[in-house]
Amino acid sequence: MRRIERSNPLGALAAAAMGAAVGLVVQFALSSRGHAPLSPPLSLAASLVLVAGVLLVFGLRLRRQIRTQPGAIDPFHAVRLLVTARAGQIVGALFGGFGFGLLLSLTGRSVAASSTTWLPMVLVIVSGAALFACAALVEQWCRVPPGDDPEERGDMDPEPRPADPAVTRDR
C-alpha cells in the first residue's frame, strides 16, 4: 500500500505566484485601455470564507470520529475530505495571490486608490489565506494516527484484496 504524502508547499506557492501574475496582467490590461481597476466583489471573499468554514466543520467531524471511534471511519469519506482539503489549499493560494496581484498594481499609481477599491482586494487576500490555512489544517487531521497503519505494525493481510475499491464496499 502506497502512503499518501503531505502536500508540497511549493505547489501552493506556485499557485499564489500564478494568481498574482494573472491579477497584475488583468490590472495592467484594464489600465492600458483606460478602464477603472478591477475590484473583486465582496461575495468572492465571503464565498472563500464559507468554503473554509464548511471544510473546517467536516474536518472537525472526522477528527472527532478518529478519536472516539477509530475503527468506524469510512475511508472513502476521509479520502474525499483529504482531496477537498488539498484543492482548498490550491484555490486559497490562487485567489490570495490574485488579490495580491490586483493590490500590487495599485501601488505604482501616482494617485492613491480609494478604500472602496483596495479594501475588497485585501479581503480576498485574507480570505484566500484563511482558506489555505483551514485546508492545511484539515489535511493534517486526515492523517492516519501512528500505530493504526498496518505497514507500520507489520500486520499485512495474508489475503490480497481486490484492486477495485467498489468491490469491497458493504453498501
Secondary structure elements and pairings:
Layout lengths: L8 H24 L9 H27 L6 H32 L8 H27 L8 H4 L18
Provide a descriptive summary of the structure in words:
The protein has 171 residues and is mostly helical. It has helices at residues 9-32, 42-68, 75-106, 115-141, 150-153. The radius of gyration is 21 Å and the shape is elongated. Residues 166-171 have low confidence and may be disordered.
Could you provide a short overview of the structure?
It is built from five helices and no strands.
The helix count comes to: 5
Rg calculated over all Cα atoms: 21 Å
Average pLDDT metric: 84
| SSE order, one letter for each helix or strand | HHHHH
The biggest sheet amounts to: none
Write down how many β-strands occur, each being a DSSP E stretch of 2 or more residues.
0
Uncertain spans, ≥5 residues at pLDDT below 50? 166-171
Proportion of β residues?
under 5%
Q: What general form does the structure show? A: elongated
Helix share bin: 55-70%
Query: How far apart lie the N and C ends?
Result: 23 Å
Helix-strand makeup class: mainly alpha
